Amino acid sequence: MTDAALQRASAGIIVGAGPAGRALASELLREGVAAVCVDPRAEAPWRTTWGLWDDEVTRHGLAGAVAARSEGPRVRFAHDHEVTLTRGYSVLDPERLRARLSAGLTLVRARATEVGIDEVRLDDGRVWRAPFVIDTRAPRATTCAQTAVGQVVRARGLPSYLMDFSLDFDDQDPRPTFGYLVPLDDERVLVEETALAASPPMEDALLRRRLAQRLRALGLEASVDARAPLEHVRIPLDVDARAIPGAATRFGVGGGAVHPATGYALARILDDAPGVARAIRRALDERRAPAQIALAAWRAQWSGSRRATRRLLEHGREVLLALDLEGLRSFFGAFFLLDPARQRAFLTSTSSPLEVAGAMASMWGELPWSLRARALLGGRAPRPLGARGRSARADLV
Ligand SMILES: Cc1cc2nc3c(=O)[nH]c(=O)nc-3n(C[C@H](O)[C@H](O)[C@H](O)COP(=O)(O)OP(=O)(O)OC[C@H]3O[C@@H](n4cnc5c(N)ncnc54)[C@H](O)[C@@H]3O)c2cc1C
């Protein structure tokens, strides 16, 4: 579509064409609502290695995008202590995911320099007005993040480890990290050194040193695929997801879709997109003003139940932030003793507060006494989640 056609069709604008922008645009298309995604990297290939649980792959019809799958991924706590999970885990081919989320979309290669509630200014000077604007840009800086550095190695037949805590590091730094090892296909494995949650975020230099130590310990040093670039992960865990009166509604990582304690976001984005699209379509049908459409799109992501779940998961993150390597070993040792349904409830940011609280209570019962007080008290107090500058209830009226 040309600019003029876009304006005539009074298409909504989605800033950003990552998974969130494209998933939402696809759902809007399904609802019969025209929307255009604006992104300076609109045509760039995707390189991120996304992992999803098998049930999430099935729920979102992504079987065709799976590059490698593990029937029973493992978690290792020490050389002689590991568990095999009963929930399958898949790694997606990023380009197949991109194709799957892009069918029929209108993508425009441009950078937004100003994003308003019904207007977007582009870096080439164009200003587009729209009945609604959704902002999916990732936040610039947050104080708490998951960071990781990954290297592709050529190896066959290695099992998947979602977490490997078995290594004691050469350095004197007490901050904990773990290994994440997932096959990408029959010949390549991604080995990543991950700081699950750290505030301030852990720096790359330490992650790279530890990754090198891990590759040595695994005997994989010589198998590094020198042509494959390092994967750098930085996922904000403390995005302020409150509605901002007068501003475009955020969606995706920038809207707080990340699970505060695990860093996973893709399933939540795909879960939320249909509801947000429906809310926008209904508000348009009712000829609502842009501010009301924005609020409807925010509410579709942040019902009272979702906000309560988020507060509980934030408490979980605060507990994790306070743990050293030994603490994480004990914590996850207890977590993976839980009934799989309880594990799933905690790992899913769309679980009900009751389900998450139930998982946390069971978890508390499994923890060693040394961690129980910490698990109850957490670290810093969680923030309220409501309209910025107002009470949590105020934005609901
Ligand atoms: C390396 C990595 C690995 C991850 N692995 C997993 C995983 O295994 N499982 C999982 O569930 N989650 C994972 N995540 C978390 C999450 O799923 C991803 O961050 C995901 O890409 C979020 O999608 P998004 O669309 O919200 O944000 P993004 O993918 O960051 O997309 C935002 C888009 O906005 C565009 N943009 C930025 N500025 C502008 C501007 N001014 N104007 C227009 N467009 C702009 C960007 O070019 C980008 O395309 C991972 C994250 C990273 C970084």
Q: Summarize this, please?
A:
By secondary structure, the chain is an alpha/beta fold. Helix content is 35%, strand content 21%. It has three domains: 3-47 and 95-139 and 239-302, FAD/NAD(P)-binding domain (3-Layer(bba) Sandwich); 145-236, Alpha-Beta Plaits, CATH 3.30.70; 305-377.
Task: Describe what you observe in this structure.
The protein has 397 residues and is an alpha/beta fold. It is built from twelve helices and 18 strands. It has helices at residues 3-8, 19-30, 54-59, 94-102, 204-217, 266-285, 290-301, 304-321, 325-335, 340-347, 353-366, 369-377, and strands at residues 12-15, 35-38, 51-53, 66-70, 74-78, 81-84, 89-92, 106-108, 112-115, 119-122, 127-129, 133-135, 145-154, 161-164, 178-183, 188-198, 231-236, 249-250. A hairpin with a 3-residue loop joins strand 9 and strand 10 (119-122). It is globular, with a radius of gyration of 22 Å. Bound molecules: flavin-adenine dinucleotide. Flavin-adenine dinucleotide (FAD) binds at residues 15-21, 38-41, 48, 50-51, 111-112, 136-138, 231, 233-235, 252-253, 264-267.
